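[DERIVE STRUCTURE TOKENS]
===
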Amino acid sequence: MTDLGGTIALGGELSVHRLGFGAMRLTGPGIFGEPANRDECRRVLRRAVELGVDFIDTADSYGPNVSEEIIAEALHPYPPNLVIATKAGLLRPGPHEWTVNGDPKRLRAACEGSLRRLRVDRIDLYQLHRIDPDVPEADQFGVLEDLRREGKIRLVGLSEAGVPAIERARRVLPIASVQNKYNVADRSYDDVVDYCELESIAFIPWYPLGAGALTGQAALTGVAVRHRATPMQVALAWLLARSPVIVPIPGTSSVAHLDENVAAARLRLDRDDLDALTRVSPQG
């Protein structure tokens, strides 16, 4: 058992360990359809809870629906301390295909579907997967606030949002989290991390390991060798060190890989390590 990076209070209400689990990979190729081994996916989820993970992030678009279904199959009835976050706002025409749809009726229907699949009466953290540029923001934020007031969702988050959009949303309803693409090699949302820290909003980095693409980075490898760790563990440790509001959610469909990710919370990077990691090259 590790300390899982300490804890954070989502929305000032729900205390979770800072190293969570992202359930996107519990699906087929292209984040579409059934996984190759559904039983192993269930084992991964149960093992995560055994290790102390109490924050699981998913979305109705993962599969679609498959990830939420597997979470319920594996873990329902849920431990009392387990927080499950899901999202809506993206449709899935096919593998690797994502289409934004923020129509309020669609968001409400998506929420109802997630409630059924997750077998809950209220979703702990419900996130707008993308702000739809073709739908008035006030309508998208407004339906989320309606769902919150109706008791169907407890906390609301945004995904892929910049500071101005976060501030506009906060004029309509409280925002507990922001989930943007961010890792040691892609720090384009540094300003959002800093804003979230200032405002006590959780920042949930997706693509925290660059889908394994960080392995060849010399700076990561050097720090990993010093700590007798893997480059991916160092990348997770860097996220935990970057800000106390960051909640990494590495995902996997393998129990062995899960154990490796969770062990990253034991790493303590010093100033020399952090300085070395500023030399990690931007991806792409």
The domain at 7-212+245-254 is CATH 3.20.20.100 (TIM Barrel). The two ends are 36 Å apart (CA to CA). The mean pLDDT is 95. Residues 104-118 form the longest helix (15 residues).
